[in-house]
Design goal:
Elements lengths: L1 E3 H15 L3 E5 L15 H5 L4 E3 L4 H14 L2 E5 L10 H7 L3 H4 L9 E6 L14 H5 L5 E3 L4 H13 L4 E6 L7 E3 L13 E4 L4 E5 L4 H9 L5 E5 L2 E3 L3 H11 L2 E8 L4 H13 L8 E5 L10 H4 L3 H13 L1
Helix pairs in contact: 1-7, 3-4, 8-12, 9-10
EC number: 1.2.4.-
Keywords: Oxidoreductase, Thiamine pyrophosphate
GO biological process, one term: organic acid metabolic process
């Protein structure tokens, strides 16, 4: 069926709740209202108030509750309305959920998913537009997933719910409804930790994820460059092999992300490429990223986000050396 990303989230949740009665969904306004972006529409009517629960406005309680339920044997899927509200629960992710397997030497695990819309581009207010996937990728034991297409959204969320360890599932709200494609009916799982080659090419490797994939593909399609485009899909664990093999073929690389440039995921990618493919590089790796500032309000976001002209400039710089 044809679906948007937000519809794919809903479809994956329906499928996993039907398949496994341990899967429970909870968060702020997810039941009666169907979520602030309507990602959980109709779940309450189908599965009832024991499995779809509105919570108080406490991110600490939501993530802490999910951790306890996961350790007890449930498969909780907790929603945080905006990723900018997740920092209060950072301690629960770092201190409890991500390290319970290590702390108990494997006797306990926390098979849980924290879903959250993230990123800029929808003219939202402060705390609604951050792109902080790099901060969470730094936590050992926590997987970080960022889909960019509806089909991948369904498959990656399904895999995340089935994963034995905690997963932070970051949904790029900028493209929640602007991208539509056919998604598989029924069971569909995309393995975590595997990047996707969205476009094959020989001149330069361009790597991105989430909401940066549409402008990246647009930039490449509007140029004469034979670029290979890679969608990471999973930030942690990161598929270094796919990126490195592409760079070995092209000899050049551009990394695109909307988070701040300093200590962003792009920095880690550059380091890994230097580790695995340094002798194949014909030019320095370029980064096209957000700026080291707070995300500006309203229309000023257009100057902050990487857009096709900026991405094309980065590609040209990579090819000019």
């Amino acid at each position: 069926m044809q679906a948007t990303i937000v519809q794919a989230v809903n479809d994956a949740l329906h499928g996993e709740m039907e398949r496994d009665d341990r899967v429970v969904v909870f968060g702020e306004d997810v039941a009666e209202s169907g979520g602030v972006f309507r990602a959980t529409d109709d779940l309450l009517e189908e599965f009832g108030s024991d499995r779809v629960v509105d919570t108080p406005l406490s991110e600490i309680a939501i993530v802490g509750g999910a951790t306890g339920m996961a350790m007890y044997g449930y498969r909780p899927v907790a929603e945080i309305q905006f990723s900018g509200f997740l920092p209060p629960a950072f301690d629960q992710l770092v201190t409890n959920a991500s390290r319970i397997r290590w702390r108990t030497r494997g006797e306990l695990t926390a098979p849980m998913v924290v879903r959250t819309p993230y990123g800029a581009g929808v003219r939202a207010l402060e705390h609604h537009s951050e792109s902080l996937e790099g901060a969470y990728a730094h936590i050992p034991g926590l997987k970080v997933v960022v889909p960019s297409t509806p089909a991948d959204t369904k498959g990656l969320l399904t895999a995340s719910i089935r994963d034995p360890d905690p997963v932070l599932f970051m949904e790029p709200k900028r493209i929640y409804r602007s991208v539509r494609e056919e998604i598989p009916e029924g069971d569909h799982e995309v393995p975590l930790g595997e990047a996707a080659v969205r476009r094959e090419g020989a001149d330069v490797t361009v790597v991105g994820w989430g909401a940066m994939m549409p402008p990246t593909l647009e930039a490449v399609d509007d140029s004469d460059v034979d670029a290979e485009v890679i969608d990471l899909r999973t930030i942690s664990p990161m598929d270094t092999e796919t990126v490195a093999e592409s760079v070995k073929k092209t000899g050049r690389c551009v990394v695109v992300h909307e988070g701040p440039r300093t200590l962003g995921v792009g920095s880690e990618l550059v380091a890994r490429i230097n580790d695995e493919a340094l002798m194949y590089l014909e030019a320095p790796i370029e980064r096209v990223a957000g700026f080291d500032t707070q995300v500006p309000l309203l229309s000023m976001e257009d100057f902050y986000l990487p857009h096709p002209p900026r991405i094309r400039d980065g590609i040209e710089r990579a090819l000019s050396d």
